[in-house]
């Protein structure tokens, strides 16, 4: 029996190559997306959808690709103002020589500007949802910036009871748990939420066993996602083994009982085969940040088991990490790396396909954030988070295989219009909610003032005259 539909809708996007990422992975060569309020009503051919609905507004994609917005499953909004300040000559272990004074000197205006810079970049590169791993200040500061731009995101506060430096302590275990619960109540998740709180942990030995266990209980009780860094480099893996009595990180986390489908582990470069099995059996999600590793030589293509994770059925998402690791917030570029760097080391074709990389960049990210029912694909009933690419670009031609073109050549270069929750937040390359030029002036001023107070000198190896 057919269900009657309301023919009156708010927005109709037509004449695009619609990459749905639905269960059948359908692609409509001349497709359309019907939107009412914040949700998708129907996806199909332009000819069919245009006959069914009367829309207040029609957007013609002009033959360009229409895709679900990218999901960046791991970012640090508060670190973006520090981008480009760590020289290539520094080993990764020296990163805190910049991060510590940056973090402790930053004020709330600079925190706002860092988050704004990150959000502007994500939108321009086709990201509609993200997960922030902990801001410098109260989570509401980053949440306000996200709301101002119109993005969708899960935010957190830095949470560690075993901090790397006394200067960045946020209190003991009880204080950390109180911070987590406070933010979860202040920014509740919900079917229409643009910004909500996650249970963010520093990980990599920064949290005690009690903090991890109680944090996971909080996530279970409030139906939230818990995320944490893990197994990034040789030193943190060695320290964790010592702390865990010789066990691997995943074995120890399994013993604590916190593995599961509402946990996302970020990085996971240095994993053992037995850890992959534990992750697969538990339904734990993984966030692969390929640029963050390659930028600072952490060995992800040599040591990472990401192709094996994908083949084992583990849900692997993609993340951009931070301003001085990948240096950019662009999930399209992350997808390119995910699809290529592992085959280069292994000498195999393929290890991760273009189709799998695009899944990692969209629906897998949504699942990792606990939002698979709301976002990540273009389907009736889901939030209308979509990206329109301009076709008038050489990177899209000849475009005979749309997924190959998206992952290997076009990526985010032709992002033209971005829609979040049915609202156009970027149209024809122009932001709708914010004055981009004014924000850049504010960002530039804040960066200069921050680095002057830090006493940070330019470390450029070429003369700047």
What report would you give on this structure?
The protein has 465 residues and is of the alpha/beta class. It has 2 domains: 8-68 and 376-428, Urease, subunit C, domain 1, CATH 2.30.40; 71-368, Alpha-Beta Barrel (TIM Barrel), CATH 3.20.20. 38% of the residues lie in helices and 20% in strands. It has helices spanning 46-52, 95-105, 108-124, 139-149, 173-186, 209-222, 234-243, 249-256, 273-282, 290-295, 300-303, 306-311, 331-346, 354-361, 363-368, 402-410, 436-454, and strands at residues 8-9, 11-19, 27-36, 39-45, 54-55, 58-60, 65-68, 70-75, 127-132, 152-155, 195-197, 199-203, 226-230, 263-267, 285-288, 316-318, 386-389, 415-420, 423-427, 430-431. Strands 2, 3, 4, 6, 7, 17, 18, 19 and 20 form a 9-stranded mixed sheet that branches. A 5-stranded parallel sheet has the order 12-13-14-15-16. A hairpin with a 7-residue loop joins strand 2 and strand 3. Helix 5 (173-186) packs parallel to helix 6. It is globular and about 65 Å long. It starts with 7 loop residues before the first strand and ends in an 11-residue tail after the last helix. The model has no long low-confidence stretch (mean pLDDT 94).
Query: How is the biggest beta sheet arranged?
Result: 9 strands, mixed
Which runs of at least 5 residues are low in confidence (pLDDT < 50)? none
Total count of strands: 20
Q: What structural category do the secondary elements indicate?
A: alpha/beta
> How many structural domains does the protein architecture include?
2
CATH H level, superfamily name of the largest domain: Metal-dependent hydrolases
Fraction of helical residues: 25-40%
Q: Total helix count?
A: 17
Under CATH at level 1, the class of the largest domain stands as Alpha Beta
- Principal-axis shape: globular
Tell me the span between the first and last alpha carbons.
Answer: 75 Å
Instruction: Quote the average pLDDT.
Output: 94
């Amino acid at each position: 029996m057919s269900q009657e539909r309301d023919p009156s809708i708010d927005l109709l996007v037509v004449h695009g190559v619609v990459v749905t990422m639905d269960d059948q992975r359908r692609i409509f060569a001349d497709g359309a997306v019907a939107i009412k309020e914040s949700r998708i009503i129907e996806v199909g051919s332009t000819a069919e959808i245009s006959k069914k609905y009367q829309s207040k507004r029609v957007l013609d994609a002009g033959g360009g690709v229409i895709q679900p917005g990218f999901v960046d499953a791991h970012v640090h909004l508060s670190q973006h103002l520090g981008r480009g300040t760590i020289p290539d000559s520094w080993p990764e272990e020296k990163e805190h020589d910049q991060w510590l004074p940056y973090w402790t000197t930053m004020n709330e205006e600079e925190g706002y500007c860092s988050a704004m810079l990150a959000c502007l970049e994500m939108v321009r590169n086709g990201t509609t949802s993200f997960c922030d791993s902990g801001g410098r200040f109260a989570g509401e500061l980053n949440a306000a910036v996200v709301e101002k731009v119109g993005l969708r995101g899960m935010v957190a506060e830095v949470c560690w009871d075993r901090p790397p430096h006394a200067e960045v302590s946020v209190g003991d275990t009880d204080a950390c748990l109180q911070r987590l619960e406070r933010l979860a109540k202040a920014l509740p998740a919900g079917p229409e939420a643009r910004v909500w709180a996650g249970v963010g942990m520093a990980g990599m030995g920064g949290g005690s066993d009690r903090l991890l266990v109680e944090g996971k209980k909080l996530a279970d009780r409030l139906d939230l996602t818990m995320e944490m860094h893990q197994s990034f480099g040789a030193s943190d893996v060695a320290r964790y083994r010592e702390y865990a009595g010789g066990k691997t990180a995943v074995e120890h986390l399994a013993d604590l009982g916190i593995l599961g489908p509402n946990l996302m582990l970020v990085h996971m470069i240095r994993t053992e085969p037995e850890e992959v099995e534990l992750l697969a059996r538990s339904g734990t999600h993984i966030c692969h940040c390929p640029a963050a590793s390659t930028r600072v030589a952490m060995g992800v293509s040599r040591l990472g088991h990401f192709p094996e994770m994908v083949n084992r059925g583990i849900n692997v998402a993609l993340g951009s990490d931070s301003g001085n690791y990948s240096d950019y917030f662009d999930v399209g570029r992350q997808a390119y790396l995910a699809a290529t760097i592992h085959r280069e080391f292994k000498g195999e074709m393929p290890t991760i396909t273009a189709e799998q990389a695009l899944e990692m960049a969209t629906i897998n990210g949504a699942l990792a954030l606990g939002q698979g029912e709301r976002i990540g694909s273009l389907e009736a009933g889901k939030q209308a988070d979509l990206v329109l690419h301009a076709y008038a670009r050489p990177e899209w031609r000849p475009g005979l295989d749309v997924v190959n073109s998206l992952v290997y050549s076009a990526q985010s270069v032709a992002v033209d219009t971005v829609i979040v929750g049915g609202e156009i937040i970027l149209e024809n390359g122009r932001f709708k909610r914010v004055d981009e030029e004014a924000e850049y002036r504010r960002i530039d001023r804040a960066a200069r003032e921050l680095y002057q107070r830090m006493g940070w000198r330019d470390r450029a190896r070429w003369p700047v005259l």
